[in-house]
Amino acid sequence: MKLFKKLAAAVLAAALALTMVGCGGGNSYAMQDELLKITIDNLTDVNETVTHTKKADEMAAALLEAADKAAAQEANKNKDAKDLLRDPAVIKAAKIDLEKTPCMFNPIDVDSQIKSSGVMGEFLKMQWMANAAGLYRFVDPGNGTFNPGDNKVEIGAATHKIGDKSYTLILLTYTATATETPVNPI
Q1: What is the pLDDT of residue 101?
Q2: Following DSSP, what letter does each residue of 70-123 receive, concatenated?
Q3: What is the CA radius of gyration of the chain?
Q4: Residue 148 near residue 45, CB atoms below 8 Å
Q5: How, if at all, do strands 153-162 and 50-52 pair?
Q6: Rounded CA gap, 150 and 170, in Å?
Q7: CA 13 → CA 17, 18, 36, 135, 161, distances in Å?
Q8: Considering the entire predicted model, what is its pTM?
Q9: Measuring CA to CA, which of 2, 37, 92, 185 is 20 to 30 A from 126?
């Protein structure tokens, strides 16, 4: 019975928190923050340590803004937002150098609308957010260059429209450090 009460309290707390967050059309910062926290939790579950940094937030914002500018160009009229975010010209326009600061990102379309209300609506919102923040959704625009090793991994997020859709971009990055060549004792 105690376990049931704890579980019920946790579900109620989550439902109340998500009521404030909403799904689409709500407070975009609250949605962004919740998706960021879920991603951090997912990374912690697989024994990855990440730090939320302003640098990663700024990289995410710059990449979204560059993709939005690219989406306005006639040549990119029918391009999907996720393809634009991977485009080397967009990455360059965002002033991201994948060799110096490799990154991975998860572009999340936050215009989704959950029509159900009450407990079922909150449950569906929680499911949507957990799925949207899944680690398997991350894209490596450097084609396999994201390999942090022992480097400190940073996470950031930003929300911006690309064309007529709103996206929250969760971005992982690290600054590659030069590894010293071990001195041969012989």
Answers
A1: 86
A2: HHTSGGGTT--HHHHHH-HHHHHHTT--TTTS-EEEEEEETT------HHHHHH
A3: 19
A4: no
A5: parallel
A6: 21
A7: 6, 9, 18, 24, 30
A8: 0.76
A9: 2
